[in-house]
Amino acid sequence: MIVILHPDTPAESSECREVLEYLAGKPGIVPKVHEIVGTQQRLTEIYLIGNTASLDRAEIESIPAVDRVVRISREYRVVGRHSDDTRAGGFTYNGVHFDQDTLHVFAGLCAVDTPRHVELMMQALHEHGQVCTRMGAYKPRTNPYSFQGHGEDCLPWVFELAGQYGIKVIAMEVTHDSHIDEIYDALDKTGHPTGVMLQIGTRNTQNFELLKAAGRQRALPVLLKRGFGITLDESLNAAEYLASEGNRQVVFCLRGMKSQMGDPHRNFVDFAQVPVVKRLTLMPVGIDPSHSVGSRDHGPDGLLDVMHATAQGVIAGANLVLVDFHPEPSKALVDGPQALHLDELGFFLEDVAIAHRAYEERRALAATAVANAGVGRA
Ligand code: PEP
Ligand code: MN
């Protein structure tokens, strides 16, 4: 059960304390207070763990500070979408809004290599009106002798270049909690010219201590990849780890599943599950077609498999596209063969726009069909 207080009722206020005192009188109920600080208002929600079946919803709603009570119908208490749940699922970070209706493309380098490549990438994004990118500084590699990323050394110049080209959000993978501190430090030292969305990769989806560390901090949102060898339920529980620690600014990202059934693609593309995640949770849902497909192969129609996979995700309502580009893929230190070229950026973005328009039309069609049927869907 979630008890939602009226906006701008801080956790430390006497009004909130009154609610907590009422709950303290109910045996077997453990309240956990969450504060969500938005640009317009501050929301306090109290999550109740234990035997909530015995609680009287109307009685709780009659306490002055309480706006409404949501009964949890699913396992993911915080990130889940529950029946009669009207909580807003999205968030705004560094001026960019993310929710289940928005769409942002994060085109960029799989791994940061040279300042020149990073600058060329940022410049191309700027020319195409893009404000988000991906830049890997900490790379989790299968082979210990492979390039592991430039780490914290590259952060200042990457952030400064991003700022110069109007980039607001960089998706950047972290593989250890010390990386979060390094990113905080570099953002502070450079004067926050840009923002960072912490990426937790598929190899770390169940690194619970990393999830807790990323969840405890609230300044930076998190892009959580689906685990490539675990169930969807297990990956959604990983998102719940982030949220239960206090960070609800989470985008969940599908990236394909490890299976030889996906051959010759690197992973088996799972973008048909975009609407599933939107139905089960309030999180915006991203797709990573580059790590799903893993090549620059194209069909006889001239469209790359990466673009086909992207379109499949976007036409199903994806809210974020994470995609590898590189100015000189043959010189990329990681994943060059799957990177799109800078002169393909316009082509890619236009293709995304076509798929997005088709999604909007499909949504309008569904609304009409439901209205004509004269009944709501069960
Ligand atoms: C990446 O996006 O750079 C990456 C390593 O992705 P994944 O964790 O999905 O393999
Ligand atoms: Mn990669």
Please give a structural write-up.
The chain contains eleven helices and 15 strands. With 378 residues, it is of the alpha/beta class. Helix 5 (177-190) links the parallel strand 9 and strand 10. Helix 6 packs parallel to helix 7. The radius of gyration is 22 Å and the shape is globular. The two termini are 22 Å apart. The model has no long low-confidence stretch (mean pLDDT 95). Residues 110, 291, 334-335 line the site of manganese (II) ion.
Write a brief structural summary.
By secondary structure, the protein is an alpha/beta fold. It contains eleven helices and 15 strands.
Runs with pLDDT <50, length 5+? none
Mean pLDDT figure:
95
Strand content range: 15-25%
Counting DSSP E segments of at least 2 residues, the number of strands comes to 15
Q: Are any ligands bound, and if so which?
A: phosphoenolpyruvate, manganese (II) ion
The level of helicity is 25-40%
What's the total helix number?
A: 11
Separation of termini? 22 Å
From the alpha-carbon coordinates, what is the Rg to the nearest angstrom?
A: 22 Å
Note the run of SSEs as H and E. EHEEHEEEEHEHEHEHEHEHEHHEEH
Shape: globular
Structural class: alpha/beta
How would you characterize the largest beta sheet?
9 strands, parallel
Provide tags for this entry.
378 residues, alpha/beta, 11 helices, globular, binds phosphoenolpyruvate, binds manganese (II) ion
Q: Would you spell out the secondary-structure blueprint of this structure?
A:
Elements: E1 2-5, H1 14-24, E2 29-37, E3 42-50, H2 57-61, E4 66-70, E5 91-93, E6 96-98, E7 104-108, H3 115-127, E8 132-134, H4 155-164, E9 169-173, H5 177-190, E10 195-200, H6 208-216, E11 222-225, H7 232-244, E12 250-254, H8 274-280, E13 285-287, H9 289-293, H10 305-315, E14 320-326, E15 340-341, H11 345-373
Parallel strand pairs: 7-14, 8-9, 9-10, 10-11, 11-12, 12-13, 13-14, 14-15
Antiparallel strand pairs: 1-3, 1-4, 2-3, 5-6
Manganese (II) ion is lined by residues 110, 291, 334-335.
